[in-house]
């Protein structure tokens, strides 16, 4: 085993520093309708267009009142009714209560809302049922308690999910300014690889890495650009790399090991690649290659006017290796290109359900199934998924995370607290 290879932490630090550099460049922005904004990245801070809530809002069906008067348990005269959607009413007369619905504006003068279930009403009056008391502010969200009009609610770089979409809608934004999604070229290589639709001949296998990586790229905020598979031939790989030059990020799978027909690294070198590392002490994924290519951009007149380095990853062909190395190393670079603030990868803690063995000199990322049913007393529980090595797609498809075993781990006992890599 080559001890010259960086360990996981060292390689991760190289990628993190590279991603941080990329984060200084803002991608171009475009408008995205709320219906298509999920998974994209906010290019301009979202601001509140008015106070939130825009009026003092009742959170219950009941009776708006003054807490001090209601807590005396003396009957209060019912002075009016406000339904959700009606304009703020009032003022509330002294020793009175106001019938109110959830989501309705609380009348001026009221400082609490007595829950319907806590009041005894006869249509004209209502009394707080002893021994209940009510405190000022109860069941009311004050105007502007969540945000003031003009406040920044979400910074640029926030990933847009269901919560952010709801907030944007509440602020009257039918469209959001989102960063243009980086274009990620996916180049699969290997003489044995045929398309999903093809009937494989003896010795051939279907291209599963292409669709897998396309899904991973899309989930990470990128735009997958699938190139035709290139055979194990230097000229074919050269041509494919030239074609992929327009991409913001290049992912190549297969052909990065030390075999006779592993031709990707030499082809990248012919394109003038700068290599940041060629191999990492991890399993699966040891042959991973990370580097960048200098790509000259031409202007309309065909003159080179801007040069920029394009990152690439040579991912090992085995599907589990490809997936793990994407999550650990390619995803943070893609996140940076997408303008995201959270670059990942994402780890969590779990309790080991069984004894496991580590591998000397390699950080392992093993397909595992985690319950995620954490309670106050118990962490989520994780167990390995039985696998036949890094080509075992079925094992990966039955997993929902990867169990992390640091290099120095010899043996871990059931019950130990471990890290898991989240997809
Ligand atoms: P390589 O990295 O080229 O040595 O390939 C390692 C293993 O991954 C071999 O068994 C390949 O057949 C397999 N492999 C390579 N590319 C793909 C792909 N696109 N889809 C599925 N398996 C692949
Ligand atoms: Mg190969």
Describe the structure concisely for a colleague.
This protein is of the alpha/beta class and 423 residues long. It has eight helices and 28 strands.
Would you give an account of this structure?
- By secondary structure, this protein is an alpha/beta fold.
- The chain is built from eight helices and 28 strands.
- The protein has a six-stranded mixed sheet. The protein has a six-stranded mixed sheet with strand order 16-13-17-21-20-18, with helices on both faces.
- A hairpin with a 5-residue loop joins strand 20 and strand 21.
Topology:
Layout: H1 8-22, E1 29-33, E2 46-47, E3 57-58, E4 62-65, H2 67-70, E5 76-82, E6 96-100, E7 112-115, E8 119-121, E9 125-128, E10 140-141, E11 152-154, H3 162-170, E12 175-179, E13 183-188, E14 193-194, E15 205-206, H4 209-219, E16 223-226, H5 234-243, E17 249-253, H6 264-270, E18 274-278, E19 282-283, E20 289-298, E21 304-315, H7 319-337, E22 347-352, E23 356-357, E24 363-370, E25 381-384, H8 393-397, E26 401-405, E27 411-412, E28 417-421
The protein binds adenosine monophosphate (AMP) and magnesium ion.
Adenosine monophosphate is lined by residues 188, 190, 192-193, 205, 207-210, 253-257, 259, 316-319, 391.
